[in-house]
Amino acid sequence: xxxxxxxxxxxxxxxxxxxxxxxxxxxxxxxxxxxxxxxxxxxxxxxxxxxxxxxxxxxxxxxxxxxxxxxxxxxxxxxxxxxxxxxxxxxxxxxxxxxxxxxxxxxxxxxxxxxxxxxxxxxxxxxxxxxxxxxxxxxxxxx
Length: 143
Fold this sequence. Notes:
Elements: H1 11-18, E1 21-23, E2 26-28, H2 38-41, E3 42-47, E4 51-60, E5 69-76, E6 81-86, E7 91-97, E8 99-104, E9 107-111, E10 116-119, E11 124-130, E12 135-142
């Protein structure tokens, strides 16, 4: 037996629901939320911080007013890297898929799916993709 869900909107709720606008495939609201999709923000780039090879960068919410958190995804294709650099703020790397080697303050550490790395302000790090498959990471830091 199928269940049916009935939803009734008050005038205010209907007005609020109507305030959401679809802009370039993104649902936006003056209050509440913004949805961005990979295909909308994907950009082919070289390796950041003078890294090697080709990567795909995804800068989510980069144009959202008042956003104090940078939230990015990066795909390091085979042979690519994020160059070794001094960290200016606390930054989190989270590995979604693939394998890599992270150089943190001169120490090499293997990373893979499910690994989260917090690099602190004043430390240095870089990341090299390893193996045949793309290395996909999420990066978050305060702007």
